[in-house]
Hints:
Layout: H1 7-12, E1 18-19, H2 21-29, E2 37-41, E3 54-55, E4 65-66, E5 70-74, H3 83-86, E6 89-97, E7 111-115, E8 125-130, E9 140-143, E10 153-154, E11 165-167, H4 175-183, E12 188-192, E13 196-201, E14 206-207, E15 218-219, H5 222-232, E16 236-239, H6 249-254, E17 263-267, H7 277-282, E18 287-292, E19 294-295, E20 299-305, E21 310-315, H8 319-338, E22 347-352, E23 356-357, E24 363-371, E25 380-383, H9 392-397, E26 400-404, E27 410-411, E28 416-421
Parallel strand pairs: 1-18, 6-7, 13-16, 13-17, 14-15, 17-21, 19-24, 22-25
Antiparallel strand pairs: 2-12, 3-11, 4-10, 5-7, 5-8, 6-9, 18-20, 20-21, 22-28, 23-27, 24-25, 24-26, 26-28
The structure holds ligand LQZAQKY5 and molybdate ion.
The site of ligand LQZAQKY5 has 26 residues, from helix 5 and helix 8.
Amino acid sequence: xxxxxxxxxxxxxxxxxxxxxxxHRAAVLSGVVAGPVEERAVPDAxxxxxxxxxxxxxxxPAFDNSAMDGYALHADDLHADDPxxxxxxxxxxxxxxxxxxxxxxxxxxxxxxxxxxxxxxPEGTGAVVPVEQTDAGTERVRVDVLPRPAAHVRRRGxxxxxxxxVLTAGTVVTPAVVGLLSGVGRAAVRVHRPxxxxxxxxxxxxxxxxxxxxxxxxxxxxxxxxxxxVRRAGGVAVTAPVVADRPGALLAALxxxxxxADLVLTSAGVSEGAYDVVKADLAGAGVTFVRVAMQPGKxxxxxxxxPRGVPVVTLPGNPASAFVSFHVFxxxxxxxxxxxxxxxxxxVRAALAEPLTSPAGRRQLLRARLEPxxxxxxxxxxxxxxxxxxxxxxxxxxxxxxVVPEDVTALPAGALVDVxxxxxxxx
Length: 427
Ligand SMILES: Nc1nc2c(c(=O)[nH]1)N[C@H]1C(S)=C(S)[C@@H](COP(=O)(O)OP(=O)(O)OC[C@H]3O[C@@H](n4cnc5c(N)ncnc54)[C@H](O)[C@@H]3O)O[C@H]1N2
Ligand code: MOO
């Protein structure tokens, strides 16, 4: 006996033919553009993507300065033709310039100016001699080794010129980029806002971790896992409470989020079950349910919800299926929203540690660990656990997915396969 409210919605949305992984990824990404641009304080832009070209407002270095603690020497005192024959040279010390200090006057031949690293060198400086190559005098200084012309002088603008574009739109803000932005005087920068992703688990059997289980109940693993994957990929995860299998419950739970979410991720309720709230609620609301020729992750859904057209991806409920589907479909979508190029993800070629079999007609993504290559060699990929999509224990031991193409049903040990990395580079 069917429970009320389900039958029609489910049977109306039964999927037809299977899509390829690429077809489904293209469908999920279709119409999705980089997120809105906002201005952020530079330290808060770490990990985000620049939405503007950045031109420098200053020269770097900003002025000619010393690369060493030592003495600025006049060009005429360097004896560039035969410096070894000229030493020792004794010069009158006419100035003492710390970093942040300003030279009193231009340097003239026969005099030296004591300078610290980063201090401006006086006009007329031909080179700087490090203090170790002198007697360190403060009134007069004996120079034991004459530097080559221009030695240890950092010239104004040799690194960055005023007006030069130093960073282009699309650049990821790394710590070094934070350094450059700050160094050229930028306190704020325009970036693509990180996507706000609502993560929602569905299923009458689900109980949050930390609460006791009743008969036939399990803890919600997908919600926290997908939220963590979103954060790792650069999104802002908003975890919504578990939605029970009651018609209307999912739409009601999503409604408050449709005003500001950039993406909705649900898990479970997309296969052929009689009480699948995801299909029941979303099939008539702009979401398409399909089969994709992959394992795990066959049942999938995607579409847009609400007046703002918020993208929604409905992932299958088995934890490994949800995880694999996240990496194959959602990670590229998050990259697109962040303003990054969306590709299939970081893939390396590796040799199988053991033989395997695979179902015909479905691309298989097997949980695995990548073992680094000996110098210059090929890395090895070792499977963890079996292909069962309920195997959460093995999933947590994996750091990669070994990809077996649709038309391959068996591979010997040593065969080369593509391996999609799920750890390391988070995006
Ligand atoms: N008759 C058919 N049955 C199934 C098919 C099919 O083609 N015909 N496909 C199977 C495949 S493949 C998959 S994958 C699953 C996907 O099912 P759903 O997305 O509808 O998910 P549920 O049935 O609700 O749950 C599946 C499984 O996962 C557990 N689960 C769900 N949510 C969570 C969570 N948040 N944390 C931990 N575990 C969760 C749930 O208890 C089930 O055991 O359908 C097959 N069936
Ligand atoms: O497609 Mo399911 O995800 O194989 O278990």
